[in-house]
Amino acid sequence: MRVAGVMSGTSLDGIDVAIVDITGRGWSKKIATVATSTTPYPKRVREAILGVSNREAHTGEIARLGFLLGELYAEAITDACRKHGVAIADVALIGCHGQTVFHEGQGRQYLGRRVASTLQLGEGGVVAERTGVPVISNFRVRDMAAGGKGAPLVPYVDYLLFRHARRGRVALNLGGIGNLTAIAPGASPDQVIAFDTGPGNMVIDALVQRHTGKMFDRGGRLAARGTVDRSLVQPLLRAAFYRAQPPKTAGREEYGEAFLNHFSALAPLDAIATATAFTAETVAVGIRRHVPWKVDDLIVAGGGAHNPVLMNGIKALLPGVAVMTTAELGISVDAKEAIAFAVLAYETRHGRPSNLPSATGAHRPVVLGDFSPA
Q: pTM for the complete prediction?
């Protein structure tokens, strides 16, 4: 089956599309990447998303943005098909994660009950109508209804792609938030550990935008010119989140505007360098504290994989671990999560569960997502 996966993460850099051919079932299924593409968000759309992310917002703004994102996702898919010579009629299914604007996997007291909740914008029905292709969307809700955190969901695909009989592996995604999947040598799916490590690019990008107006630290050049304030990094690592046992999730609720105040006393370049060092430390702390077996390989995807200062910082903190990117194993660094949601949609379309309870904390495996027929 030819499936398109669509992902737009918390870094808000744009819409990633991956078109893949999937054959087989279970852990022996094969995935062949046909095409990948990234469409940047227009500046005003990005600002609108930030305007409703973990903030007070009018319901009209949220509704309009949800429908607009559906239009943009459909355009990104059709553009990717056109660019790579893929007939949209040959795409049998679309998996669309949507844009997360709120995620509270831990839950909190609300009107007398403890409620966990999440909100991803981007109407699947709009995508289906514009493309003529069935859509699976809104993946997180069913896992949360089953007692899970609703994240991370990608470990199902990390296990499929990266498990190894003899090597302990960690698949790390450095998007807006950092998240990892830890797979012991020869592990079964129910032995996988997965959790958010803390910020990926979110804090670095926000400081770069605040101080320079640029979207991100291209090539880590700004961090390389700054001086790390170690007296700030270590206190930040004492937060309860880093001691908490998996499964656990984080987002803009923890690492948004308020968190940037920790860096406000530093010169701009020093703030960016310190945030980069802090991000590397959160990855290393997560692995050291919560992965109870020897890690041989760290396999990195996401925008942070393009930042050599961040990557070198992680390498320095994990001696003896072979640090590589997914590209070295034939998987696009930028499209891995889009590929993942194509696979999750494929499983849903066949009526098969695709959450890993050991990763999300759910009581049982469940079939994920909402179906919008073409």
A: 0.93
